Amino acid sequence: MRKTMVTTRRSFLGQAGAGGLALVSGAAWAGPSIELPLPGGPRERALTTAFPQKATMILQRTRPPLLETPFEVFDRGVFTPNDQFYVRWHWAVIPTEINVDSFRLSVSGHVDRALSLSLKDIVDGLPRVELAAVNQCSGNSRGFSQPVVPGAQWANGAMGNAKWLGVRLKDVLDRAGVKPGAVQVRFSGLDQPVVDGAPKLMKSLALDHARDGEVMIAYAMNGQQLPLLNGFPLRVVVPGWYSTYWVKMLDRIEVLDTPDENFWTKNAYLIPDTPGANITPGQTGVKMVPINRMVPRSFVTNLKAGATLKAGAPTLVRGIAFGGSTGVTAVDISLDDGASWRPTTLGTDEGKYSFRQWQIEITPPAGPVSVMVRCTNSDGLAQPKTMNWNPSGFMHNGIETVQMTAART
Amino acid sequence: MINAAQVGFGAAVLAGVVLAIIGHPGPKDLPPTASASAPVSTNAPQTFVLKSVSVELPTSDITFPGGAAADAINANCLSCHSAGMVLTQPNLAKATWTAEVDKMIHTFKAPIDQSAVVAIVDYLSETKGAK
Fold this sequence. Notes:
The structure holds two protein chains of two kinds.
Chain A: H1 9-19, E1 33-35, E2 44-48, E3 57-61, E4 66-68, E5 87-88, E6 97-98, E7 104-109, E8 115-118, H2 119-125, E9 129-136, E10 159-168, H3 169-176, E11 184-189, E12 202-206, H4 207-210, E13 216-221, E14 224-225, E15 235-237, E16 250-256, H5 263-266, E17 270-272, E18 288-290, E19 297-300, E20 308-310, E21 315-322, E22 328-334, E23 342-343, E24 345-346, E25 356-362, E26 367-377, E27 400-407
Parallel strand pairs in A: 7-16, 20-27
Antiparallel strand pairs in A: 1-2, 2-3, 3-4, 4-5, 7-8, 9-10, 10-13, 11-12, 11-16, 13-14, 13-15, 17-18, 19-21, 21-25, 22-23, 22-26, 24-25, 26-27
Chain B: E1 28-29, E2 53-54, H1 71-77, H2 84-87, H3 94-106, H4 114-128
Helix pairs in contact in B: 3-4
């Protein structure tokens, strides 16, 4: 299990001894790079094409991989191409070879019949379902947190939207037969910690949630098998919830009859139990709860901050939005710092958990142009004007503003 | 429709499957495979065939700069993760760096000798410390 691509401590030290501890000055890489508009930290990141089944990605970390989607990808449509879908792994021991004939998914624990399912059992033996859904890292946009917080300094590209093809988790659980008294369902995958004794990544959902008919086990996204780095051959899809629950390389499902005490479920990915997980920096005594449903967001995708528009000319403003845990009801823009709002035209509805495109035409007068965009979801929840903040940089979802200039030509 | 540039998306595998239902509450049922009991032909349009994968993941040879001051962080931290995400952190208070290193040791079981902890925290707060 721990054989592939693992630099053991000993072998690393050997390499370090042989190569010396190189001094790095200036950019630590050769090749193309990108500036992320992060207010608080280093902005430059390498662009990389070195990862398997991936086109150009923003390199946040090589090992374990953290790869961000370049933002212009989101202007090309509501579905994020697999080869530019973001990547986030917690532990560096990631299998690099998966044999589809020998792979098995186990279902065990508080069930009538423990199962060991082949991929064929899953693909050909269970009802096939499909759903468009946004997958977003809990810490997407953390790099915009003010004051700054530690963690991967993502810009807005730790999210993506795909059509997930697979089976209902409920159908798998029904085949095993959940016993009375079960309370949670725990997921884990083939990835492993480098160090013995470190907590393996596992996440649990409440039994009722796991059996709601929406939670899926996906074997394809956007019509193709999952890229290995996005969880091949199987990953959990939890529509409307943050990606920490969307366990990749899923090979084990355990039905629990007592609440999950493992680190990743009980102690990690906790948020303040406040609207938008928002607190004041330094605030104490806040109840912390596991992160859960996503909140609405919206972005301009066809115009960049700092762009010069043509004054007096009709100009298309276009972007994407998602409602979080439910659909998009409205996307509005404001050109006057939020004093007044104008509705945009929404694009095709691909389902309530999907990105949705929006567009509007504006005719900017000469001078500064500030476009604010706000999504309201079908629960009536709108993005807040003031950015939410918490010490983990989770659930960032304040209204985005794009500052541009319109000039006469 | 706005920006219909989603190239060739999904069409190949799901050819013939109607995907147009909108606003459904959950995943929608698709037609089942040709027959649950029959072997599935790889050419059948309504099945889905997974193929084995073998890839290589890149490694990073970036080390923490700074010569001897970086010896402890280079020797103790890079076996679990490459340097990139650390080098792109914003400047953080020494207490924050102390907490991060503590989390690596006590929560994530990094085998770091106590004698190296001070040097690692000092390095981080020297190079990435809040001013």
